[in-house]
Structure formats: C-alpha cells, structure tokens
Write a structure and sequence with these properties.
It is a single chain. The protein is globular, with a radius of gyration of 19 Å. The protein has about 300 residues and is of the alpha+beta class. It contains 10 helices and 6 strands; from the N terminus they run H-H-H-H-H-E-E-E-E-H-E-E-H-H-H-H. The strands form 2 sheets. A 4-stranded mixed sheet has the order 1-2-3-4, with helices on one face. Strands 5-6 form a two-stranded antiparallel sheet. It has helices at about 5-25, 25-35, 45-50, 60-75, 80-90, 160-190, 205-235, 240-265, 275-285, 290-305, and strands at about 100, 115-120, 125-130, 145-155, 195, 200. Helix 1 (about 5-25) runs parallel beside helix 4 and helix 6 packs parallel to helix 8. About 50% of the residues are buried. The two termini are about 25 Å apart. It has a domain at about 160-305: Butyryl-CoA Dehydrogenase, subunit A, domain 3 (Up-down Bundle). About 55% of the residues lie in helices and about 10% in strands.
C-alpha cells in the first residue's frame, strides 16, 4: 500500500510552508518568553487561509496533518491539533472564536481561548470558562487550567475518544515538522562551523548524532502518514496508530532537539540561540494529550490482543 502524499497534498504542503514561513517564527516564541505571557495566536491569519477548517470542509486528517507539519516547523500557534480535535467533536464549531478542549490538567491553547469543550459525566459540553495560567515553558502552546462556568450540553460524546486520537495524530504531525526543522538547523551548522580546520560535521561524533536524529524523523514521517491514513480510512487501526505515533513523536522530537543543542556546543545552551525554543516544544508536547509512557503502554496492550 502506498502511504506517500498525493500531488494535491504536496501542493498543499508547499502552500502551507509558504504561509507559515511568513506568518510565524521562533522569534514570536522568544518574544512571548521575554514578556512572560502566552503567545497571542495568529488565529485570524490562519483562518484567512482556511487551513483551520480543512476537516469541516470535507478534507482528510492526512490533509490537515500535512498542514500541521509545516506549522510545527516554525513553532506556530494556535495548534492545528486543537482545530482538528474540535472539528471532530463539533463539526459546525466556529473555529475562529478561539477554541480549546479541556482534559485533566492544563489545556492546549486555553490561555487565549474563549470557547471550551469538555466531557462531564459522559456528556459533551461547550461554553465559557475561567482561565488560570502561569509563566509558560513553551508559550506557543497556551497551556492553562480551566474552570468551566457556563456550559451547554451538545451532541458528540460518542466522538470523544475518536477526537482525542485524531488530536494525537495531528500533534505528532506538528512534532514531525519541529523535529525536521531542528535537524536541518543542526546539519547546516555542522557544515558551516569549523574546528581544527574542518567542518565539525566531518567528525564522527557529530555526524552520527545528526544521522540518528534524521533517521528518527524519517521513521516518524512514515508512522505519521500511516496514522493519518488510519484516521481517514481504517478506524479500527486508529487506536494502535494514534498511540504509536504519539509515543514515537515524543521520543523523536526530544532526540532531535537535544541533538540540535549538542551540535551547537556552548552556543546551543544560551538564551540567545533558538535551540532552546525547539527543546521547550519537545518537553511540553511529550505530555500533551497523554504522555509517551501511556502511549507505549497502549501500543503494547493492543499489540498483544
């Protein structure tokens, strides 16, 4: 079976890369960190492209995953995974209002959201809430605790688990883009930086660490496209696929960002360099929509059935 992207999806990826490269950058994350507040999302800019509503307009999870990957490359906010999850829960939702799904613990994009979704006593509810947030580790994720205030029950409780898995797939696609970009930055630096008259990339320790990170990215890419395909075409495989890609994304992104820091040596540990911004994304995403330990446990359990 061919899990490669179609010509239309490659064109979508190209359009998304062009948009996100102009609409967002790690500099936005740095500015938010220095300000000590969550990153104000570029919601209107994303909405103008229609990328946020791909699932509502009849597109596929794979289509949206392609967009999510490009968003991840520049640490864009708000999360494409959040748009996808809400689109599954509430296909007619106004995604331009600023939406967030509330699970246990801090909620993704809640710091700048105005409409919240949650599961309460087996019933899907939608409404307002009070947001409490502290200094962010990664301001691009808008994490905040939410106390629901005025909510209305709506249909969709039966879609809760499916929406969570779609969210995990899309989050992994974002992480793919982030990891891919981290490796690219590391490779370019290894080509440019000279030590003892040679590019540092010619030394085995540097070369091998980058190759290992690159291999992880390519493995994640294959798994991400399969998981997205499962969400679209084979729901029976989605529980396993979503857990597998969630776990691998956490592992690969952490490896890629730590390699980025190591390759840059002393400069990689400084505030002024962007390496820590990618590392922050890795540390936060590892625990979003379930952690990697839970994901790997699910993979093991489902594989033994």
């Amino acid at each position: 079976m061919n899990f490669d992207l179609s010509d239309e999806q490659r064109a979508l990826a190209s359009a998304a890369r062009d948009f996100f490269s102009k609409a967002a950058s790690p500099a936005d994350s740095r500015a938010a960190l220095e300000d000590g507040s969550p990153l104000a999302p570029g919601l209107k800019a994303v909405a103008d492209t229609g990328f946020h509503a791909i699932l509502q307009e009849g597109g596929t999870v794979l289509d949206l995953s392609v967009v999510a990957t490009e968003a991840g490359r520049v640490l864009s906010a708000p999360s494409i995974a959040g748009f996808g999850r809400v689109s599954v829960l509430d296909p007619t939702a106004d995604l331009t209002a600023g939406v967030s799904v509330v699970d246990a613990g801090p909620a993704l994009d809640a710091a700048t959201a105005t409409v919240f979704y949650a599961l309460r006593d087996g019933q899907l509810v939608r409404g307002a809430g009070t947001v409490t947030s502290g200094p962010p580790l990664d301001p691009t994720r808008g994490l905040a605790d939410v106390t629901l205030t005025e909510v209305t029950p709506i249909d969709g409780a039966d879609r809760w688990e499916h929406a969570l898995r779609v969210g995990q797939v899309l989050l992994a696609a974002e992480d793919l883009g982030t990891a891919e970009r981290a490796v690219e930055i590391g490779v370019q630096y290894a080509k440019d930086r000279k030590a003892f008259g040679r590019a540092i990339g010619s030394y085995q320790a540097v070369k091998h660490s980058l190759v290992n990170a690159f291999v992880g990215v390519e493995q994640l890419r294959s798994l991400a496209w399969w998981a997205a395909w499962a969400a679209d075409e084979n729901p029976a495989e989605l529980p396993l696929a979503a857990a597998a890609v969630k776990g691998l994304a956490a592992t690969v992104l952490e490896q890629a960002t730590e390699t980025l820091i190591q390759v840059h040596g002393g400069i990689g540990f400084t505030w002024e360099h962007d390496a820590h911004l990618y590392w922050r994304r890795a540390k936060v995403d590892r625990f979003l929509l379930g952690d990697d330990v839970e994901a790997y446990d699910t993979v093991a359990r489902l594989s033994l059935v």
